[in-house]
Design brief:
- The protein has about 80 residues and is an alpha+beta fold.
- It has one domain (about 5-65).
- The protein is built from 2 helices and 3 strands.
- The longest helix is centred in the middle third of the chain and has 11 residues, at about 35-45.
- The two termini are about 15 Å apart.
- The mean pLDDT is about 90.
Length: about 80
């Protein structure tokens, strides 16, 4: 069975963050520093047949606050495999 993957880009003060979800858990994180085209290419190579999804609003807000220097707690499920 193929695991459902989602990819999304989140704008932050430092640039775009890429997120990849597998089975509802954060499975990939692309940090700012590459162009949006390169970020899209990297995310699509991880999930080639997946369209872009809208990030969960609360996660997008927490990431934005984190990259603005605010203390933030992340309790989102993570897949480290």
């Amino acid at each position: 069975m193929t695991e459902t993957k989602q990819i999304m880009a989140v704008p932050t003060r430092l640039g775009q963050i890429g997120l990849g979800f597998a089975g509802g858990k954060v499975a990939r994180l692309w940090l700012p520093g590459m162009s949006r085209a390169d970020l899209d290419k990297a995310m699509r190579s991880w999930a080639p047949n997946t369209g872009f999804s809208k990030p969960p609003q609360d996660l997008a807000q927490r990431l934005g606050a984190y990259f603005d220097g605010a203390p933030v707690e992340f309790d989102d499920p993570v897949d480290l495999s």
